[in-house]
Amino acid sequence: MANNCAIIGGSGSPRLPFFVLGREPDADKSALARYQLFIANYQLPAMSQYLIPTYARQPVAFVRGEGVWLYDENDHKYMDAISGIGVCNLGHCHPAVTRTLAEQARQLVHTSNLYRIPAQESLAQRLCELSGMANVFFSNSGAEANEAAIKIARLYGSRKQITCPTVVVMEGSFHGRTMATLSATANAKVQEGFAPLLDGFVRVPFNDLAAVEALAENRDIVAVLVEPVQGEGGIHIPADDYLAGLRALCDRNDWLLMLDEIQSGNGRTGDYFACLGANVTPDVLTTAKGLGNGFPIGACLVAGKAEGVFGPGNHGSTYGGNPLGCATALTVVNALTDDVIDGVADKGAWLKDAFTQAFSDLPMVTEIRQRGLMLGIQLDRPCPELVNRARDAGLLINVTAGSVVRLLPPLVINQTEMQHLVDTLSALIHRFADEQEVA
Ligand SMILES: Cc1ncc(COP(=O)(O)O)c(C=O)c1O
Asked: What binding partners and quaternary form does the record give (predicted)?
C-alpha cells in the first residue's frame, strides 16, 4: 500500500498505480474502473517517506480535473486559480489535448532525436510563425529551455573571443532550479547552500533601462535575460517601453536579447507571447509551462544574432521534442490560438476591476498588478496562510514573494467562474484582515 500511496501523493497530476494499468490493448475501460475503485477506497496517508521531501506539499491529492476544476479523492471540488503553476492554460483535461495524447500514445511515443520527428518539425514551424523567430530547440522543462539559452549566450560570446561571457539578469527574477538557472535567479533561498554558483551573471534592478545601459562599457556582456512579466517574483510588470528599450540597447551593444516566456507565454498575457504585445522580437525566446498544458515540454527559440549559434553536437536531449510531446503541444497551440487568447485581456481587466472594487475599503491590499491572466494582489504583510484557508474554501491559489497572492487561472475561465473567484477570495482576504486587526 505504501508504494501505491507514494505514487499518488508524489505526482503533480495523478498517475495510475501500476496494478491498475491494463496490459491488453483494449484494457483502458477496465483499468479506469479499477482506478476509480482504488480511489474510492483510498486514504491519504502522512506524506510518503519514499519521496525526497523537496516540496512543502499541501495535504490533498487530486484525482481528476475538468476545465478550471479539480476534484480530490473524496470528490470535493476546488477551483484551480493557479493552473498547476501557470501550466494548464486550456484548463484540466481539455478534450482535444486528451484525445491527442491518447491517440499519439497508441501510435508512437518516442523515437529520439537520432531521427526526424514530423510532429516536432510542425510544432517548430507553428511556433516560429506565431513568434517571428527562426528555429527551435525542444527541451522537457522551463529550466532546460533556459539552460539552452544560457549556453547559446556563452557560445555566442566565446565565438567573439570573450573569455568570460556574462549575461545581465534582473533582481526579482526566476529562471529555474538547475545550476545555471538558479545562478541566474535572484532568490537567495533558491541559491542557499549551492555555492559555488556559476560565474557569468551580473544583476541589475528590473525595469531599469539606465542600469543596463550603464553596463555598456563591460566588454564581457553578451546577453540580457529577462522575464517580460516577473511571475515568481510577485507579478511585476515593467514600463510599456522596457522591452523595446532593452532591444535597442542590445542592438547597440551587439548583445543577445533573451526573453524568458516560460510563465508569460502561451497566451497568458493576452498575446501568444508577451513580446508580441510589446512589438519586440528577441534573439532568444524560451517557453514551457502552457506549451504542453501539463505534458512536460519546453522550447528555446532563436532569431537574429542567435540564429546559427548552435550547430550539430552543441546541445541535446534524449526526450526533448519527442513525438508524444510535440503532437500534444501542437494541439495545445492550435486550441489556444483558435479561440482562447482573444478573451484573455478582457478577462484579466475584468478581474482586476472586480478585485479593485472588492478591496477598495481594505488598506491591507496595497496594489493589484495584472497583465492578461497574470494577477498579483499585493498585501502589506506576509500572508502564506491564505493558501490553506483558500484551499479549505475550495480555492487553489499561490502566495509568492511572501505577501503577493498570485493568480494564474486557466485562460478558459468563464464569467460565472471569475465571479466565484472574486467572491471567494475577497471574503477570505477580508476575514484575514479583520483577524489581523483584532490580534
Ligand atoms: C519565468 C520562469 N522561468 C523558468 C521557470 C522554470 O521552469 P521549470 O519549473 O519548468 O523548470 C519558471 C517556473 O516557474 C518560470 O516561472
From this structure: Homodimer.
